[in-house]
From TrEMBL:
GO CC list: recycling endosome; trans-Golgi network
Alphabetized UniProt keyword annotations: Coiled coil, Endosome, Golgi apparatus, Lipid transport, Repeat, Transport
Ranges of the HEAT repeats in the UniProt entry: 931-969
Cellular localisation: Golgi apparatus, trans-Golgi network; Recycling endosome
Top-level taxon of the source organism: Eukaryota
Gene3D superfamilies associated with the record: Leucine-rich Repeat Variant
Entry protein name: LisH domain and HEAT repeat-containing protein KIAA1468
Regions annotated as coiled coil: 180-207, 334-361
Annotated spans, Disordered: 1-72, 125-156
Cited PANTHER family: RAB11-BINDING PROTEIN RELCH (PTHR32059)
Composition bias type Basic and acidic residues, residue spans: 16-30
InterPro entries: ARM-like, ARM-type_fold, HEAT_type_2, LisH, RELCH
Length: 1143
């Protein structure tokens, strides 16, 4: 008997294994002595065999439509002299041909029970058309009919397709409801009717192209035949399937909407009565080669000689040119060969997998034996066991290297081995046990294992240590083959920590960037962005903060279309809706990063609106982020577009002008600050544009001889993005450009320098015109514009400031010495142009010549305004702005001393009033050495108006200075104003003194208030009762009322109250009864309160001593409280000190 290949899986071998005691004659060669095929390959042929025979599927028919008989197959096989086996398919075909239907049915049942279904029998018994036909309907073309004609129709219960095969088989007496069987048959019959109708539809669709057109296409092969409706539906289905598999969900939805007449959920909707073809990827990899249907199956063990094919489909005369039918037959043979090859390859892969499993099992058993031997040798040491251990180790090496199946010589049954190993207490029934017992053997299996295990690991890790899982999650998400698992892992990453702190967020963002670098823009868009979108409205601000930061961090790795559309919209939504300051701050920074990578010029308007929106944010930290990140990035983009100085800056200037036009009665200072601060942040990018578009730019080359840039050359930048060296590229190149810039301005001029000419001829004049329109009394506006011009001049340099900026201001102010008189009444001097020029332009450089220029300008302004009797608001604004910086105190005192010694009384009077503004910021040493001597000099001035003008400054000194000697000098000077007979009739002096006392009295030293202020107010009120001029009397009375109202909140002793405060109030009340009844009512209530206090303090009745004492204590507490309240300044923060308990 010939040897049998143990890996042969033909049907004949399976039958032989089921019947081992029977003799299979077909396994023997017709020649008893002929050797069988070598055991190594079941499909190899002996050396003396005929040429290889054609392996043909037995369920295919010849061109004549007849099947191959068993005798023909046997004849052709014996002629070839090759050992063959008769396949079950050939047997089935013969049974059906000879109408042995019941035998074929029993054969089919046995094959089903053996787990090997035969397509021919399955198709035959599942087709109701083989058992019943309507009268007058011819049999199907491919229907197999025996000599007796079609099978007579049977009842639905006994129809072959509805029989319960298990009931008639050998291994069961199972019964089922016949009614269920009938319903199942009817259901199958309906489905088959639908399939038949669909087949008719297919044929109709195939024939839609006109026959004449097909002839044209055949005659002209270069013209491609148009797509048929059936082909179009099939391709649509495959395209939609490809989009869904590769996560193009939006494209799939759009594609489905455009083909709403087709159901993409069901392949049968295409209308084809054939199995679904492979997907697009498989079709592309196969390069268009014809793939056999996966449902077609064949027994590969039947060999058929090529010359014995029935019908002789291929002519043996090579001289004749084959006709069309022969070409078709050749193509079918080629297809059949390819199909056979595919079957062999698939069987080869299946065998290889079985071999691998057997090898793994053998290694596992070997490991168990080796372990047992080693443990045995350790327990019973002997030379024999040592030698045995060495043998086992050598066997192990041999097994691992050669992968043989013989690992030990014991003859234990597999069941016994399995039972023995069960005592190892291994657990594989649980999820974790299954994972532990299944060791990954490839990178892909490792990723699959991590994808399965990580969702169970993360919830059991401490919150404080969960960031340690970030590398593992990211690596798995990068390399995992399943999109759903990757999505789950990224979801875990973003939800890893409930409220991630700053360090944890940085770690997650670092991982996201690494993920984006690894997977590319497409997967970042498809996998990471949806995670951000899900958490855009999360209840915890830390999670929303993570989303905002992730949008910026991922911006360089996103597709440009997504970056400028979806991500920009997400950030805009968060900017307008999020209530957390830190989230909006991160949003603004991410928007700045987006602006650094955006390349869609249509988004300029949206970027501009986002800039204005974020600048108007109520949070200071958000506004700072705008200036540090967003505006520099946006300016860099507009520089590339060429619209920085043509669109962005002009738009801001236009909004400022519109604001000034609308705010003539009330300027919105906040909006002005927003626009002006944006302009200020645009100064460095504007200067960079000037340098990069200069005539000398091409000559700028960094080298070692160029001197380094001075540290104070540019203002300190708010962020690195506003550093000129970073904007230009490096400090060496910037240094080279600055040298050429200064040389160009000083020697060669600005001809052809368009960007600088725009700054000089358009920007500067417009800014100066805007400055002249703002309110000079608004210290905020003056300060904002002053800082803007200071940064502007420092950025553009000293030469530019001296040659381009100062001349334009001087031309408008016209302050040259020869036309000081002519400029009397010049309106521009009363505008904000004066303080902004003085504090913003003249102070940007602090050398001696610059200080002299500033001193001269202020002296000229003071002189001009004084002589022209113009308002001093512009000069006061200059002193307030400069006085805030101690560096300029000496300079301002120099200017005031110029006014003190001036020949004009008007100028001296102006200087005296300016001292009041300067005293509060100057230290006491300067006050004692420079201010008080100047004021005493002015207090003895021949002009009474000059002496009166010194009173507010003296009062301010009494309010702010603490040196006793200095206070005594001031007190003596004020006493001289009040007690000197020459001032008794000076109505203006008295009004100024009363106004000053009311202003400084509550904050002055209590002793000065009780001993000096209140007694002199009493005298002035008493003197006003006898004033004959009613206008003067009412002026004094109103000022006294304001002073007493301010002083009533202070603590006043009983003696002062009785001797000065109450008498003064009664005198004032007498005046108000005649002059102002509404004031008289208030004064009456104030007098009553004071009298009650005095009465309570003065009663000393013995019977009510206790109650009086308690009343006095209550009144004393109330008085102390009012005294505390009266001593408070305008700051509300001091209120807390009133209620503090003494320690």
């Amino acid at each position: 008997m010939a040897s049998v290949n143990p890996f042969d899986v033909s049907d004949s071998d399976e039958e032989a294994e089921r019947r081992p005691n029977e003799t299979v004659d077909t396994e023997r060669s017709p020649s008893e002595g002929a050797p069988g095929p070598p055991p190594g390959n079941a499909f190899s042929l002996p050396a003396d065999a005929e040429p290889p025979t054609l392996l043909l599927s037995s369920n295919r028919t010849s061109p004549s439509g007849e099947g191959m008989s068993v005798s023909a197959a046997a004849t052709s096989t014996m002629a070839g002299g090759v050992e063959t086996r008769v396949s079950v398919d050939v047997i089935a075909a013969q049974l059906l041909r000879d109408q042995y239907i019941l035998t074929a049915l029993e054969f089919h049942t046995e094959l089903l029970e053996a787990g090997r279904e035969l397509p021919r029998l399955r198709d035959y018994f599942s087709n109701p058309g083989n058992f019943e036909r309507q009268s007058g309907t011819p049999p199907a073309k491919d229907q197999v009919l025996g000599p007796g004609g079609p099978l007579n129709r049977a009842g639905s219960i006994s129809t072959l397709d509805s029989l319960d095969f298990a009931r008639y088989s050998d291994d069961g007496n199972r019964e089922s409801d016949e009614r269920v069987a009938v319903l199942e048959f009817e259901l199958r019959k309906a489905k088959e009717t639908i399939q038949a109708l669909r087949a008719n539809l297919t044929q109709a669709a195939e024939s839609e192209v006109a026959s004449q057109e097909r002839k044209n296409f055949k005659s002209s092969p270069e013209i491609q035949e148009p797509i048929r409706p059936l082909e179009k539906r099939a391709l649509n289905f495959l395209v939609n399937e490809y989009l869904l598999k590769n996560e193009y969900k939006l494209s799939s939805i759009t594609f489905s909407d455009e083909n709403d007449d087709q159901d993409f959920e069901l392949w049968d909707d295409v209308g084809l009565n054939i199995p679904k073809p492979p997907d697009l990827l498989q079709l592309y990899r196969n390069g268009g080669s014809t793939l056999s249907s996966p449902t077609d199956k064949v027994d590969a063990s039947v060999g058929v000689a090529f010359g014995d094919l029935p019908g002789n489909c291929i002519s043996r005369e090579p001289q004749k040119k084959p006709d069309l039918s022969q070409q078709v037959c050749i193509s079918k043979v080629v297809q059949e060969l390819e199909y056979q090859l595919n079957l062999l390859n698939s069987e080869k892969q299946s065998l290889a997998e079985q071999i691998k499993k057997l090898q793994s099992l053998a290694l596992l058993q070997l490991g168990f034996v080796c372990t047992s031997v080693i443990l045995w040798s350790e327990q019973s040491p002997s030379p024999f066991f040592g030698e045995l251990t060495g043998i086992v180790e050598r066997c192990t090496i041999m097994m691992v290297s050669n992968l043989t199946f013989s690992c030990y010589s014991r003859k234990l049954s597999p069941a016994f081995q399995q039972a023995l190993l069960s005592f190892c207490r291994m657990c594989s029934e649980s999820r974790l046990g299954a994972e532990v017992s299944r060791i990954a053997d490839s990178e892909e299996s490792v990723m699959l294992m991590l994808g399965r295990c990580l969702p169970h690991i993360v919830p059991n890790v401490l919150l404080a240590k969960r960031e340690e899982l970030i590398p593992l999650i990211l690596c798995t998400a990068c390399l995992h083959p399943e999109p759903k698992e990757r999505d789950q892992l990224l979801h875990i990453l973003f939800n890893l920590i409930k409220r991630p702190d700053d360090e944890q967020r940085q770690m997650i963002l670092t991982g996201c960037v690494a993920f984006a670098r690894h997977v590319g823009p497409t997967r970042v868009e498809a996998e990471l962005l949806p995670q951000c979108w899900e958490q855009i409205n999360h209840k915890y601000p830390e999670r929303r903060l993570l989303v905002a930061e992730a949008c910026g961090a991922l911006a360089p790795y996103l597709p440009k279309e997504i970056r400028s559309s979806l991500v920009l919209s997400m950030l805009q939504q968060m900017l307008t809706e999020d209530k957390a300051d830190m989230v909006r701050e991160a949003v603004v920074k991410s928007l700045g990063i987006i602006m650094g990578y955006i390349d869609d010029s249509d988004k300029y308007a949206q970027g501009f609106e986002l800039m204005l929106l974020s600048l108007g944010d109520p949070s200071e930290r958000v506004v700072n982020a705008v200036h540090q990140v967003f505006i520099p990035a946006f300016a860099a983009w507009t520089t590339e577009l060429g619209t920085l100085h043509t669109a962005l800056i002009p738009s801001l200037l236009a909004r400022i002008e519109k604001l000034l036009t609308q705010g003539e009665h009330g300027l919105d200072e906040h909006k002005l600050h927003v626009f002006l601060s944006a302009l200020q942040s645009l100064i460095p990018p504007l200067f960079a544009v000037v340098l990069q578009n200069a005539p000398f730019t091409s000559r700028a080359k960094p080298h070692e001889d160029i001197p380094a840039i001075e540290v104070t050359r540019f203002p300190r930048p708010a962020s690195p993005l506003q550093d000129m060296a970073i904007i230009i590229g490096n400090r060496e190149l910037l240094s080279s450009l600055l040298l050429l810039y200064d040389h160009q301005l000083e020697h060669e001029g600005t001809t052809g320098w368009e960007s600088l000419l725009w700054v000089v001829n358009q920007l500067l004049p417009q800014l100066i015109e805007i400055v002249g329109r703002i309110n000079v009394t608004s210290s905020t506006c003056v300060h904002e514009f002053s800082r803007f011009f200071w940064r502007f001049c420092r950025t553009f340099g000293k030469i530019f400031t001296n040659t381009k900026v100062k001349p334009q201001f001087q031309e408008i102010l016209r302050l040259s010495e020869e036309n000081v008189d002519a400029s009397a009444g010049n309106g521009i001097l009363t505008k904000a142009t004066v303080p902004i020029y003085a504090t913003g332009v003249l102070t940007c450089y602090n050398q001696e010549e610059d200080r002299k220029l500033l001193v001269g300008f202020l002296e000229d302004v003071m002189t001009t305004l004084s002589l022209s009797h113009a308002p001093l608001d512009s000069l006061k604004a200059s002193f307030v702005e400069l006085g805030a910086n101690p560096v300029y105190h000496e300079l301002l005192l120099t200017v005031l001393w110029y006014g003190v010694v001036h020949t004009s009384a008007l100028v001296r009077c102006t200087a005296a009033r300016m001292f009041e503004l300067l005293v509060k910021g100057v230290n006491e040493t300067l006050v004692a050495q420079r201010v008080v001597p100047a004021l005493i000099t002015l207090s003895s001035d021949p002009e009474i108006s000059v002496r009166i003008a010194t009173i507010p400054a003296f009062g301010t000194i009494m309010e702010t200075v603490t040196q006793k000697e200095l206070l005594e000098r001031v007190k003596m000077q004020l006493a001289s104003f009040l007690e000197d007979p020459q001032y008794q009739d000076q109505h203006s002096l008295h009004m100024e003194i009363i106004r000053t006392f009311g202003r400084v009295g509550p904050n002055a030293e209590p002793r000065f208030r009780d001993d000096f202020v209140l007694p002199h107010l009493h005298k002035l009120a008493l003197a006003n009762n006898s004033q004959s001029v009613e206008s003067k009397r009412i002026d004094i009375a109103i000022h006294l009322f304001e002073a007493y109202s301010a002083l009533s909140c202070c603590f006043i002793s009983e003696e002062v109250m009785v001797n000065h405060f109450l008498p003064g109030l009664r005198c004032l009340h007498a005046d108000m009864e005649q002059l102002s009844p509404e004031h008289e009512v208030i004064l009456g209530s104030m007098i009553k309160e004071c009298e009650i206090k005095v009465e309570n303090r003065g009663i000393s009745d013995a019977q009510g001593s206790i109650s009086i004492a308690s009343s006095l204590v209550g009144e004393d507490a109330k008085t102390k409280f009012l005294s505390k309240m009266g001593q408070l300044t305008t700051s509300g923060a001091m209120l807390a000190n009133v209620f503090q308990r003494k320690k």
